[in-house]
């Protein structure tokens, strides 16, 4: 297997000008943490390179990263977030990075994080006349309460309005998130860029009663309520634990399965002593865990898109989620699952109880969830983004070396 490329900035090669677009991607998460942002961006880079584009990714990294990255990664200096070492704070670009970027001669700069690295990339793009686009991956204001930073919300939105106001296009993963951005004054150049799901991997055929019995110790007739995601309090884990406790107090018969890893695991294990914790799973093991469960429970209200919700739906599970950006554009309330008021333990418990106690309801909703998930095809999702790129790039793409005009794919898009 070929080793992913990592560029040493001290050895930046000069190359011939390519007809295919050159794209520089700046992101705060790429291979040092296995989250939805890094998985989405790696999939994007792999797709772009298959289309013939040249992509250079500037991002923090760590020794022995958990993600095998796509494309060519240029590590940028970074430090761990105090108290949360799985996250990294970028320290920005060095002179060597700037020289490498100048040698690369990007046609387009794509910024995925509005941090110091993103700010410097934006400033470089404006100074050099390079088109710049951005993707919105994190519902920043929803995280503030978890870090006791509610006082800074007005400043945050002021900065985000300025930052995204400099970008020609902003790619947002859900219509509900677009509505929130518009409500806070980010109203122009918003383009819907949803996420897809690999239905060859995530599907009901992955269900394994042998795995349930032999690994989880769950009998065939028992109902499994599953949570999948990083074990961080921002994912609504307090609500999850309180809801599970409420169901236990009501003597509702079920088993709780927690799939994921993170700094909240030890405390969550103490609060949910009867729950089954698998740790971090990926690939076929993750697909088997989804499909072997019966109900998906995801109370997070900090998502921009519910990647895990979509994977659960593709696995044939009805879902009970927070009525918040991310999941609420995926779940059809009362048809593919239920949407509860964020933080409302009684609502979550009530919806879960209905599903736990009715196999017919689980089967019906699971069937509709599977049908809806099939609409989210990765190829179509990435084609859409490439069309957005081409709308920006079309005037600037250079002709081929023999003087012939570059023929662009017939991909067009309109703003949301």
TrEMBL record:
GO terms for molecular function: glycosyltransferase activity. Keywords: Transferase. The keyword Cell wall biogenesis/degradation does not apply. Pfam families: Glyco_trans_1_4 (PF13692), Glyco_transf_4 (PF13439). InterPro entries: Glyco_trans_4-like_N (IPR028098), Glycosyltransferase_grp1 (IPR050194). It comes from the Bacteria. Residues 35-200 form the Glycosyltransferase subfamily 4-like N-terminal domain. The keyword Amino-acid biosynthesis does not apply. Gene3D superfamilies: Glycogen Phosphorylase B (3.40.50.2000). This is Glycosyltransferase involved in cell wall bisynthesis. It comes from Rhodothermus profundi.
């Amino acid at each position: 297997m070929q080793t992913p490329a990592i560029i040493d900035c001290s050895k930046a090669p000069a190359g011939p000008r390519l007809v295919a677009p050159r794209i520089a991607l700046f992101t705060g998460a790429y291979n040092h943490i296995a989250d939805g942002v890094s998985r989405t961006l790696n999939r994007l880079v792999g797709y772009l390179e298959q289309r013939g584009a040249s992509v250079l990714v500037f991002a923090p990294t760590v020794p022995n990263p958990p993600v095998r990255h796509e494309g060519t990664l240029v590590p940028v200096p970074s430090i761990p977030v105090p108290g949360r070492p799985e996250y990294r704070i970028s320290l920005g670009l060095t002179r060597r990075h700037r020289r490498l970027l100048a040698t690369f001669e990007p046609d387009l700069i794509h910024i995925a994080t509005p941090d110091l690295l993103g700010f410097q990339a934006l400033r470089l793009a404006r100074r050099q006349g390079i088109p710049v686009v951005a993707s919105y991956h994190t519902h920043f204001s929803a995280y503030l309460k978890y870090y006791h930073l509610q006082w800074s919300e007005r400043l945050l939105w002021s900065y985000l309005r300025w930052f995204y106001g400099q970008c020609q296009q902003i790619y947002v993963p859900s219509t509900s998130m677009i509505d929130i951005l518009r409500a806070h004054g980010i109203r122009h150049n918003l383009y819907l860029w949803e996420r897809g799901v690999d239905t060859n991997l995530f599907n009901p055929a992955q269900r394994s009663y042998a795995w349930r019995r032999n690994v989880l110790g769950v009998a065939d007739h028992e109902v499994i309520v599953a949570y999948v995601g990083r074990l961080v309090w921002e994912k609504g884990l307090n609500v999850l634990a309180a809801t599970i406790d409420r169901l236990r107090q009501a003597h509702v018969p079920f088993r709780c399965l927690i799939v994921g890893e993170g700094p909240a695991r030890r405390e969550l294990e103490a609060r949910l002593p009867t729950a089954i914790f698998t740790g971090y799973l990926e690939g076929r093991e993750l697909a088997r865990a989804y499909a072997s469960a019966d109900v998906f429970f995801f109370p997070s209200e900090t998502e921009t898109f519910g990647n895990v919700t979509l994977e659960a739906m593709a696995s044939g599970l009805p879902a009970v989620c927070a009525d918040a950006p991310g999941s609420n554009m995926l779940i059809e309330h009362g048809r593919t699952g239920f949407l509860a008021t964020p933080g409302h333990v009684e609502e979550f418990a009530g919806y879960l109880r209905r599903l736990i106690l009715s196999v017919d309801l689980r089967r019906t909703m699971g069937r509709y969830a599977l049908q809806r998930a099939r609409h989210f095809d990765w190829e179509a999702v990435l084609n859409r983004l490439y069309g957005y790129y081409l709308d920006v790039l079309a005037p600037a793409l250079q002709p081929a070396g023999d003087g012939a005009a570059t023929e662009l794919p017939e991909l067009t898009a309109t703003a949301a």
